[in-house]
Amino acid sequence: MSKKILIIITALFFSAILFLSLFAEKIHNAGLPKVTVSRPETHIFEETFTDENGETYTFYTEKTAISKEQIEQGVYVMCSAEKNGTKRSFVRLAHVVIGEENDGYLEIVSGINYGEKIVTSSTAELYDGAEVFVIAFE
């Protein structure tokens, strides 16, 4: 009887190990914050220029911008790195320098570039260097 119990326990143990080995990545990803990412938007900003004759000109330029809400929550930029032989997604907290304000958006002077992907929403609070799972790219 004790031999049968030992065989059953051994079979259950190896079944559990096999299950964990096959589904380790899915189990790991389930515990990560789920994020949606996009490229920074561009908005039109009005600028004025006064020449040497005292004449004032108004012109409009398109600049990379971000909403006030995102600045207050912190701007996280996506980056990829290899960890344990697998390419994974991480975020870094961007130190954004802002410029002019227009219609609820702030000009990005430096800290992120237009081509970079930034986090627009997350299912959990993020921190610098957090590993994330990207669910959508807008």
Largest sheet: 5 strands, mixed
**Helix coverage percent of residues?**
10-25%
Proportion of beta-strand residues: over 45%
N- and C-termini, Cα separation: 61 Å
Chain-averaged pLDDT = 89
How many H/I helical runs? 3
Overall number of domains: 2
Structural classification: alpha+beta
Residue runs with pLDDT of under 50 for 5 or more positions: none
CATH topology of the largest domain: conserved putative lor/sdh protein from methanococcus maripaludis s2 fold
The strand line-up of the biggest sheet is 4-5-9-1-8
Shape: rod-shaped
The second-level CATH architecture of the largest domain is Beta Barrel
* Name of the level-1 CATH class of the largest domain: Mainly Beta
* Helix and strand pattern: HHEEEHEEEEEE
Radius of gyration: 25 Å
- Number of extended strands: 9
Defining traits:
138 residues; rod-shaped; 2 domains; conserved putative lor/sdh protein from methanococcus maripaludis s2 fold; four-stranded antiparallel sheet
